[in-house]
């Protein structure tokens, strides 16, 4: 059950990923991560945690449209928790056809079989029968193992003792109550955009509600003007509620912009929630915020009387695509 996945989330950071066929693993500092939905969220967080990391995140069929020479310098990490994602399997096959260095992350399914048959490096994550969006910790550790980032891997494992999901449930439940009947829009700094996107995904998939995310300063130049309700437009925006994820480590100019935007929205009658990102380390700050999002999305689902775990529309879509 998803509530158990939330409560037991710290256990993911006790996992010790084993790289099969490790002798064939390309040593490089340049990567392509091919994955859809929850299977690329770990890569998003790694790039936010260490912005200097050279990662191209690819969520589509095939491979990124970059020069062949550049692709050959990279390790293509193909990630799919289910091991059955159509686009990701296509990326694996495209990488093999181009004779690129490739590695696989999956918990089960066809992708693991393809990796084993081709004798390419792979990490078989434990199959805890959870939704991919809930396996970000497992994905993070697996990805760091393939990237050869041992120091980062050690730092991530510390989260097993730092995260305390049960302490966040009350805050998440109360946030869900305040958001009830509204469409959440999550705002972050650009450097924390991956956290905002994770929040959006959790509200979409767990809460079964529309949710959107954007980042300052870009949204100050366009999106905010869409909420300057005038004339006949107020009815278009009165169902939105804003969640500002504020970070004291952000550039002071970004902090100022977010405070001004908060005031402008409140002056126009919009509801604004402010969540301060806190933690002992940057990684602790990230995953602490995601724990809160998990609880808020879970209690959102309960308030609306919907299943917080499964994603039937996604499964329906996959069946139609497979016809």
Would you mind describing this structure in some detail?
The chain has helices spanning 2-7, 41-49, 68-72, 86-97, 110-118, 136-147, 150-157, 159-162, 169-179, 193-205, 234-237, 252-267, 282-304, 312-321; strands at residues 19-20, 30-34, 54-58, 75-80, 101-106, 122-124, 183-189, 212-216, 240-246, 271-276. It is an alpha/beta fold. It folds into 2 domains: 2-161, Rossmann fold; 164-304, Glucose-6-phosphate isomerase like protein, domain 1 (Rossmann fold, 3-Layer(aba) Sandwich), CATH 3.40.50.10490. Helix 12 links the parallel strand 9 and strand 10 (271-276).
What tags apply to this protein structure?
323 residues, alpha/beta, Rossmann fold, 2 domains, 6-stranded mixed β-sheet, 4-stranded parallel β-sheet, globular
Topology readout:
Blueprint: H1 2-7, E1 19-20, E2 30-34, H2 41-49, E3 54-58, H3 68-72, E4 75-80, H4 86-97, E5 101-106, H5 110-118, E6 122-124, H6 136-147, H7 150-157, H8 159-162, H9 169-179, E7 183-189, H10 193-205, E8 212-216, H11 234-237, E9 240-246, H12 252-267, E10 271-276, H13 282-304, H14 312-321
Parallel strand pairs: 2-3, 2-4, 4-5, 5-6, 7-8, 7-9, 9-10
Antiparallel strand pairs: 1-6
Summary of the model, kept short:
The chain has 323 residues and is α/β, with parallel strands linked by helices. The protein has 14 helices and 10 strands. The protein is globular, with a radius of gyration of 20 Å.
Fold-level CATH name of the largest domain: Rossmann fold
Elements, N to C (H/E): HEEHEHEHEHEHHHHEHEHEHEHH
Tell me how many strands there are.
Answer: 10
The low-pLDDT segments are none
- The helix tally amounts to 14
Q: How far apart are the termini?
A: 30 Å
How large a portion of the residues is in β-strands, by DSSP E? 15-25%
